[in-house]
Structures are given as C-alpha cells and as structure tokens.
Specification:
globular, SH3 type barrels, mainly beta, single chain, 82 residues
C-alpha cells in the first residue's frame, strides 16, 4: 500500500502538536480532533518556506462533519489509500 499523504487517502491522527483551537481554522468543528481519530485527507496546503499542511475532514456515520483541520505530516498516518 502506498503510504504517501495524497488527497482522498484515509488517515489516522497519531499526535497533536497544537491546541484544540489550532485545528478549527474554518470554525466548523463540533469537537476537536483527538489522537486515534480517522478522517479523509482533502487537500495539501503548500507554500514556499513553510512546512506543508494537510487538510483532513472527519465525518460521522451520516456524513456530517465532526471536525475539519489542517495537520503536519508527522501528525498523521495513512491507513487506507483511495
């Protein structure tokens, strides 16, 4: 399995380096992400001179967004490729 962080792979949160508010930049979170949560990588935010950030969404069984946040690569692990 390709373990590359690409859009539409399923990832697990391995660790959190920021505070809860750091992961709610869009203001839509029902709760903060937690270690062990799973989500889908939606986009990669890349800019010269700064580390890439990975936008991940976690949804409940009805498809409602539980949280949407951006993470550093070492905060995530790929668990399923698209």
């Amino acid at each position: 399995m390709d373990k590359t962080l690409n859009p539409y792979v399923v990832v697990r949160v391995l660790r959190l380096v920021g505070q809860a508010d750091d992961y709610d930049g869009w203001g839509v979170n029902q709760r903060a992400p937690a270690v062990g949560d799973m989500g889908t990588l939606l986009d990669v935010l890349a800019a010269p001179g700064v580390a890439d950030r990975y936008v991940v969404e976690s949804s409940d069984g009805n498809g409602t967004t539980v949280w949407l946040g951006d993470f550093l690569a070492d905060e995530l692990e790929v668990v399923q490729t698209a």
